[in-house]
Amino acid sequence: MQNSDIKKLNEQANIFTKKIASMKEELKKVIVGQDDIIDKVMIAIIADGHVLLEGVPGLAKTLLIKTLAESMDVDFKRIQFTPDLLPADIMGTKIYNHKNATFSTQKGPIFANIILADEINRAPPKVQSALLEAMQEYQVTISGDTLPLKRPFLVLATQNPIETEGTYMLPEAQVDRFMFKLVITYPDLEEEKEIIRRMTGGKDPKTNKIASPKDILDLQRFCRTVYADEKVEDYVSEIVDCTRHPEKYGLEVNGHIDYGASPRASIWLIIAAKANALLNGRGYVTPEDIQDIAYDVLRHRIILSFEAEAEEIQTDDIIKKILSTIKVP
Predict the structure, then answer these.
(1) Where are the domains of the chain?
(2) CA angle 208-18-214, nearest 5°?
(3) Which of 3.40.50.300, 1.10.275.10, 3.40.50.880, 3.20.20.140 is the CATH number of 3-200+210-216?
(4) pLDDT (mean) for 105-133
């Protein structure tokens, strides 16, 4: 690609970055701290990818997603996942009309732009799997009829990692549909004080609608045009291949990896890196963009062995070793 083309991409990226910055400011009116999580959620919107948010109760996972939806002029639905939930409660169903002896389709809450799947691991597998077609193909099949979903369409799911009673672990096929798995941690001391002030002061910050569905779709379309050099693609390919064949790259993991990342990891590493570049006002991808989002793309796609769990080795530890092993272009 010519320098003049890169320059044009940078100029266009700067225009979009202003809109993204406005959306982030609206989120920060309500959410204290969590700057990295806010950035990653914005990247997911730009990249048109779904997000799994993991963290203990009370860390504003649900509030973050609700505030995000309020900053955009889009349809938003919250689905509280519970053990007694049925697929029809999410997708919808056919209803028989006795008056004219016909069936009509009653659409479920999945027919919205942003879906908050709250405590997704509370529902049984048949309910979790009801989201598979929607998340991958942006459509829903109800009694043989296939209906398209609204665009943009994003699923942001939350789960609590410390409570296992009454929960169902998400299957790998389901987890792989999420572009990111974000881990939310506790606020620091100063952020804790600010949370107290905001939440006990009697004033509820209002969120303005900054972006329309067209704005989001324009962002997503431009994201795909951000330039990624062949050397960056090689870098991503080697990172993902290293999760499958670590010995090829001289990485000793002592059998801690049962299964490496799927090809979706390579795809999302590039797209998320493009979104990260756009977030930073650039029309081209650098290796640093890959490194910024690598943990969030890979941590739920690398399946660790029993030995790794017994030795309390985390997926992030493996990813750190991989990134330090693969040569940066």
Answers:
(1) 3-200+210-216, 226-325
(2) 65
(3) 3.40.50.300
(4) 86
Does 226-325 match 3-200+210-216 at the fold level? no
Tokens of 71: 């900053």
- Ordered alpha helix ranges (H), the chain: 3-30, 35-47, 61-70, 87-91, 125-128, 131-137, 172-175, 189-200, 213-225, 230-244, 263-279, 287-298, 306-310, 315-325
Distance CA 271, CA 265 (A): 10
Quick one: pLDDT at residue 128? Answer: 83
Cα separation of the two ends of the chain: 17
Q: What's the pTM value of the predicted model, to 2 decimals?
A: 0.88
281: left (phi over 0), alpha (psi -120 to 50) or beta: left
Q: What is the tens place of the pLDDT at every residue in 172-211? A: 777 888 999 998 888 888 888 888 887 777 677 777 888 8
Q: Is 250 exposed, middle or buried (0-12, 13-18, 19+ CB in 10 A)?
A: exposed
DSSP H stretches of helix in 186-314: 189-200, 213-225, 230-244, 263-279, 287-298, 306-310
Q: In this structure, which topology does domain 226-325 adopt according to CATH?
A: Helicase, Ruva Protein; domain 3 (1.10.8)
Looking at residue 240, its pLDDT comes to 94
- Side chain identity at residue 233, one-letter code: E
* 22, amino acid identity: S
* Tokens 């960056």 -> residue: 232
Q: Which position has the token pair 């029809």?
A: 88
